[in-house]
Design brief:
Elements (H helix, E strand, L loop, with lengths): L1 E3 L2 E4 L8 H4 L1 H20 L3 H19 L8 H11 L7 H9 L15 E2 L1 H38 L5 H27 L5 E2 L1 H21 L4 H22 L2 H5 L4 H13 L14 H13 L4 H6 L1 H9 L1 H15 L6 H14 L1 H11 L3 H29 L7 H10 L3 H11 L1 H15 L1 H22 L2 E2 L1 H7 L3 H22 L3 H32 L3 H5 L6 H28 L1 H6 L1
Parallel strand pairs: 2-5
Antiparallel strand pairs: 1-2, 3-4
């Protein structure tokens, strides 16, 4: 503490360069960057080969793809489909990485099938899937024929007949939905015998050594960490097994919920083994994963959906956050401002990722973070099932895809759940929902910064009577957010660079290369390790005191209700009143 102008000011001292290799946030950045750089070294040398394939697709479809600006033609979609098949991750190294990092497989009644599948069982499963695929393929062929007929009728009228253009656009939309169904069915036919046990053991060893590097740098015991990691990784594998059970997968009860459940079950019954605690590192794992998430936030893709989507995500979200925080303090009278802030970020931004970033920024207790994450997971599972059904039943047909997609993208917490819900309505809804959610994810770092600023300069000053200097604000700010932002900027620039050579090369090299073929493969595992750690470090008795009176539940439900109403209203205004011309081109 130092005295300035007669006031006590908290002073954390001068910046020390040793923080770069001693602090958890910085190690999350270095480890995340190591994975991203490895991905670039693996995939970027194949850019020339991918470019040649894209040029071949352009030569085949481009002449017919842009015959009119009234709607996207059949050839336009065929061109995009051909380009999407050009993926850098399809190289041998990419296929090996996918196999090495694979989670336990989907299973129905025999959990052994999560790890291994015999040749006979694989053939039987494939035969069943092929029957469904052939049926879907036939339906798509019929829908394509109808779309071509409708488009040719519109073309015969010089694309000047509004009714014929609308009919063609509608027929093409139906074909695209049938195409999406066929794509899903085709994926299920790719069944081969497998034995994942050896790969899982190898992956566990690789992860243990990977995170042990930072553990050593932070001055902690590496042997104790490695021993504990065996336990944490084992629970993570179990979580994926439970999540991939057919019924659980259908209802969207994902690995995050199971990881926290199994962790809490252990910690509140037999107790988390003391020898496992050195590897129970919630923030270490999740921060590394969030740095990887930053590479997925590509600014060029954000611009594609235009000002309408940006307005829905970047205006509604902070509005909901502020209103919900005010409601929690003034109306519900939440006893913990930190829990209040964490729930606000969890509910309004993007679920668990935003909750953890906010909890780090305001120094929330681990029990408060657990409670916020638990609320998010429960309501995410409900909303991803209920919202598509509500949209189908109540929205006008011409509003279901874009308005429905924007509504779900702006309100459902988890990115995976958003994609699943969007796919239920159709390909266009999936695109809009996923893009809105990606735009919203940008706010993780922004919200974390302002929460850190508010709590250090206002909340803690009121609590302690001590003012803080600039260094305390810098000290409190979660540094891993810097990695998130840098990764986003760097990969956005690479995406633009590749697309400047030929349209679609950015998608091939970044989306379907370094991201899908590298960072996403690891990020899911890192998140799961974090959720397991949350559960293993949580005690029901400590959690119970935060739930007294049901205030957190009231806050979440009220905030989410306001979020649902405001997002729907703003999405309608933006997409159908202010920017109808943008909506017509999506």
């Amino acid at each position: 503490m130092v005295e300035k102008n007669g006031e006590i000011v908290k002073d954390v001292g001068k910046w020390e360069w040793s923080e770069l290799w001693k602090k958890e946030d910085w190690w999350a950045i270095w480890l995340g960057f190591a994975i991203l750089i490895a991905g670039m070294l693996i995939y970027f040398p194949h850019a020339g080969k991918m470019k040649s394939k894209l040029e071949a697709a352009e030569a085949k479809y481009a002449d017919k793809a842009y015959r009119t600006d009234k709607f996207k033609t059949v050839a336009w979609y065929q061109l995009q489909d051909a380009k999407k098949k050009v993926t850098a991750k399809s190289i041998p190294a990419g296929k090996w990485l996918k196999k090495f990092t694979s989670k336990p497989h989907k299973w129905s009644s025999n959990p052994i099938n999560a790890f291994m599948l015999s040749k006979e069982a694989a053939e039987a499963k494939k035969a069943k899937a092929m029957a469904k695929y052939e049926k879907a393929k036939a339906a798509e062929k019929e829908a394509l024929a109808a779309a071509i007929v409708a488009e040719e009728a519109a073309e015969a009228a010089g694309f000047s007949d509004v009714a014929l253009n609308a009919k063609a656009k509608n027929a093409i939309t139906k074909w695209r939905d049938a195409h999406l169904a066929t794509s899903k069915a085709k994926k299920k036919t790719k069944v081969r015998p497998y034995n994942q046990i050896g790969y899982l053991i190898g992956l566990g060893v690789a992860f243990a050594l990977f995170f042990a590097i930072g553990t050593k740098g932070m001055g902690k015991s590496v042997p104790k960490f490695l021993l504990g990691f065996i336990f944490v990784f084992g629970v993570a594998v179990l979580s994926y097994v439970a999540a991939n059970q057919a019924t659980m997968k259908h209802y969207g009860i994902g690995y995050a919920a199971w990881a926290i459940f199994f962790g809490m079950l252990i910690s509140n019954t037999v107790g988390t083994p003391k020898w496992a605690m050195p590897a129970v590192q919630t923030e270490y794992y999740i921060k590394t994963g969030l740095v990887l998430l930053g590479a997925k936030i590509l600014f060029e893709k954000i611009v594609v959906i235009g000002t309408a989507g940006i307005f829905v995500a970047w205006v509604v979200t902070p509005t909901v956050w502020l209103v919900t925080y005010w409601f929690g303090q003034k109306i519900v009278k939440m006893p913990s401002k930190r829990l209040n802030a964490t729930i606000c970020s969890d509910m309004s931004v993007c679920g668990v990722s935003a909750a953890i970033a906010t909890a780090a920024a305001c120094k929330a207790k681990k029990e408060e973070l657990t409670l916020a994450v638990g609320l998010s997971l429960v309501f995410t599972s409900i909303m991803m099932i209920v919202m598509p059904a509500v949209i189908k039943a109540t929205f006008p047909v011409d509003k279901q895809l874009i308005l429905g997609g924007a509504w779900m993208g702006g309100t459902i917490d988890a990115t995976g759940a958003v994609a699943a819900a969007g796919a239920f309505l159709g390909e266009k809804a999936l695109y809009v929902a996923a893009t809105i959610k990606m735009i919203q994810n940008v706010l993780i770092g922004v919200i974390a910064f302002f929460v850190a600023l508010y709590f250090t300069t206002k909340v803690e000053v009121a609590e302690t009577g001590e003012k803080v200097g600039p260094m305390e604000i810098w000290y409190r700010f979660p540094k891993f957010v810097l990695g998130f932002i840098v990764a986003s900027i760097v990969f956005s620039l690479f995406y633009t660079y590749f697309n400047s050579q030929i349209d679609g090369l950015g998608y091939s090299m970044i989306d379907k290369g370094t991201i899908k073929g590298m960072s996403d493969l690891f990020r899911g595992w890192f998140f799961c390790l974090s959720f397991v750690s949350i559960g293993l470090a949580t005690n029901f008795r400590e959690l119970k005191e935060h739930f007294v009176g049901g205030k957190p539940l009231i806050l979440y439900v009220t905030g989410q209700s306001f979020n649902l109403c405001l997002t729907l209203l703003v999405a309608y205004i933006m997409f159908y009143v202010v920017f109808p011309e943008l909506t017509a081109t999506i």
